[in-house]
Amino acid sequence: MKLKLFAAVALATPLIFASAVKAGNSQDLQRLLSTGECQRCNLVGVDLSGEHLIGADLRGANLSKANLSGANLEGADLTNANLKGANLSSSFLTNVNFKKANLNGVNMSRAHIFDSNVHGASMDNLNITDAEIYHTGIGIGGEDGAQVPDWD
How far separated are the first and last CA of the chain, in Å rounded? Predict the structure, then answer.
């Protein structure tokens, strides 16, 4: 009986670890976590919750439906990144470059968003409930024709 139980656990273990990646490209995920650089990577649906991605280079990366809740993205470059439907709740987004990023349907509830660049970003259905937003062109409503500043 013990041998059967051990065999079942041994067979199931790789499946448990494989499901942690969920989607995207596991090589791209490993590259991001080891080097902090992953331009134009396929990270669709990956779980990066609570990760320290300070200064990460994710220009042009596909992070749609990724879980970045509680992640620290301070100084990260997400220029032209696709974050459609991603979860960034309770994340730290200080000095993040979201220039021309797809932020449609992103959950930024309870996020800390300070001094970030959202020039040219698409922000339809962005959830910013209880988020702290300072010196960043994200808000509710606004004036017609208001300009979002760019870092360049």
Answer: 66
- Residue carrying structure tokens 């200064």: 55
Lowest pLDDT segment from 10-14, 35-39, 82-86, 111-115: 10-14
Residue 46 contacts residue 26 (beta carbons within 8 Å): no
Determine the Cα–Cα distance for residues 70 and 93; give it in Å rounded to an integer: 10
From CA 95, how far away is CA 11, in angstroms rounded? Answer: 44
pLDDT band (50, 70, 90) for residue 14:
very low
**23 torsion bin: left (phi>0), alpha (psi -120 to 50), beta (else):** beta
Is 79 a residue whose pLDDT tops 60?
yes
Q: Which parts of 22-82 fold into alpha helices (H)?
A: 26-35
How far apart (Å, rounded) are the C-alpha atoms in residues 13 and 16? 5
